[in-house]
From TrEMBL:
Full protein name: Protein yellow
PANTHER family hit by this protein: PROTEIN YELLOW, PROTEIN YELLOW-RELATED
Subcellular location: Secreted
Classification via Pfam families: MRJP (PF03022)
Keyword Secreted tagged: yes
Family per similarity comment: Belongs to the major royal jelly protein family.
Superkingdom as given in the UniProt entry: Eukaryota
Signal found in the keyword field: yes
Keyword tags: Glycoprotein, Secreted, Signal
Signal peptide stretch: 1-19
Chief localization: secreted
Protein function: Controls the pigmentation pattern of the adult cuticle and larval mouth parts.
């Protein structure tokens, strides 16, 4: 098939695919519950108000072996029992109770040294470690208090021991800082690892070197929100989140030069940006790398996104919160709306798909949680509010524009208004020039 035909053909099929339901439901909850040491302890926590089920919203997931990790931010003081939890993936119930990870003690609010106060997104790496950023806070927006500093925690998933706790330096954050996302860049060895953390409201990108046990902070105008993109309508609820900057991030597989590309987008924006990890890994680049960040195209209307992930083949998946949908983009192609597909859309089951992750078996996992209803209105606890869904990636991209490969080179030139992106970096074939 010739490239041109390929695109047209799949664009047609893509619109057809919208009607099908590709993600399968794995878990579903009306309301969250926790596995206490005893039923008595659970009832006691509910009776004394230390656990208020209706204040618990799951926001982040990760999959490792037969565990699904689920984070619950402490948006209210004292009523969210544990912020980092897991459930066994193969448990034969649809609405399992959350089990604190690694244990109850490690989830103590305000215990800076040993506890976790609020965790948003989590990332497992190929060295069987779980990277967990603790904001050290409780509350939300103007009720936020920070008993502890931001701290990056790394757990050994095999032993359930904490390998490291690193407090961000005062210079890594500012008075507006709010960091909810983390990307992990693993090199050739387990020691050669970096974490990138996006400061959504303080507009920065913090890099942490595991080997050096050091962090540094980039600032860039591309981390700022687009003033024209601050309006949202989700599940008929209209609201403005105009100040939210750099948020979702995804890393490509290694390029020919050994480095990866970090794609990111501010939340109040429809635009994608990209930077090489060669820049981010180098602390001397702070302050003199403005031209090493590149602006790509806008995704098109209603394309706010908070979470994205890329698989080992360079397929990016991203949540489309205004569309109750999950989008895809094959990074072998130019970043533009025509090359984006929708792998699933559901106005009931995918209301606010808060997190997307890929497991080691090439399945895409999604959690939807009706976050905007929770924050701005309220949830009906007679309804199913939270869902975990998954599907094999090859099933999801079938018949979408993202499937069209591997020989479609039609879109590899990257035009944009802000400079010439080194296009050869996009080659999926190391060492082979495409032009
Ligand atoms: C926080 O903001 C909300 C609305 O923006 C307001 O109603 C409330 O009084 C504020 N609370 C505090 C503690 O400032
Ligand atoms: C990392 O650095 C922090 C201080 O910045 C220190 O408290 C901690 O012990 C260090 N950890 C390792 C493993 O070197
Ligand atoms: C880091 O960046 C500085 C400044 O651009 C450059 O001189 C240096 O060679 C870079 N280091 C590495 C290891 O690439």
């Amino acid at each position: 098939m010739k490239p041109k035909h390929c695109l047209v053909f799949f664009a047609f099929l893509c619109s057809q695919a919208l009607a099908t339901f590709k993600l399968q439901e794995h878990f579903q909850w009306n309301i969250l519950d926790y596995e206490y040491p005893s039923e008595e302890a659970r009832l006691q926590a509910i009776l004394t108000g230390r656990f208020k089920p209706e204040n618990n919203l799951p926001v982040g997931i990760e999959i490792w072996n037969d565990k699904m990790f689920i984070s619950v931010p402490r948006w209210m003081e004292g009523v969210i029992p544990a912020t980092l939890n897991y459930v066994p993936l193969n448990i034969p119930v649809k609405n399992p109770r959350l089990i604190p990870y690694p244990d109850w003690e490690s989830n103590e609010l305000g215990n800076c040294e040993k506890g976790l106060s609020t965790v948003y997104r989590i990332k497992a790496d190929k060295c069987d470690r779980l990277w967990v950023l603790d904001t050290g806070t409780f509350g939300i927006e103007n009720t936020t208090q920070n008993p502890c500093p931001y701290a990056l925690n790394v757990f050994d998933l095999r032993t359930n021991q904490r390998l490291r706790r690193y407090e961000l330096r005062p210079e890594d954050t500012n008075a507006n800082t709010f960091i909810a996302n983390i990307a992990v860049d693993l090199g050739d060895t387990c020691d050669d690892a970096f974490a990138y953390m996006s400061d959504e409201l303080g507009y920065g990108l913090i890099a942490y070197s595991f080997r050096e046990n050091k962090s540094w902070r980039f600032t860039h105008s591309y981390f700022l929100p687009d003033p024209l993109r601050g309006d949202y309508t989700i599940d008929k609820l209209n609201f403005q989140w105009g100040e939210e900057g750099i948020f979702g991030m995804s890393l490509t597989p290694p390029k020919a030069d050994g480095f990866k590309l970090l794609y990111f987008s501010p939340l109040a924006s429809h635009r994608e940006f990209v930077v090489s990890t060669q820049t981010l890994r180098n602390s001397s680049k702070v302050g003199n790398s403005w031209n090493e960040f590149y602006a790509l195209a806008e995704r098109g209307p209603n394309s706010h996104t908070t979470s994205r992930v890329m698989d080992d083949k360079g397929l990016q998946f991203f949540n489309l919160i205004d569309q109750n949908a999950i989008g895809c983009w094959n990074s072998e192609k130019e970043y533009k709306a025509e090359n984006h597909g929708i792998v699933d859309k559901d106005d009931e089951e995918l209301i606010f798909p808060a997190d997307v992750k890929v497991d080691r078996n090439e399945n895409l996992w999604v959690i939807s949680d009706r976050m905007s209803n929770f924050l701005l209105s309220s949830l009906n606890y007679n309804d199913i509010n939270f869902r975990v869904m998954f599907a094999p990636i090859d099933v999801l991209v079938k018949d979408t524009v993202c499937e069209c490969r591997p020989n479609d080179l039609s879109g590899l030139r990257i035009p944009h208004r802000f400079g010439q992106f080194p296009v050869q970096l996009y080659s999926p074939y190391p060492g082979k020039s495409l032009f």
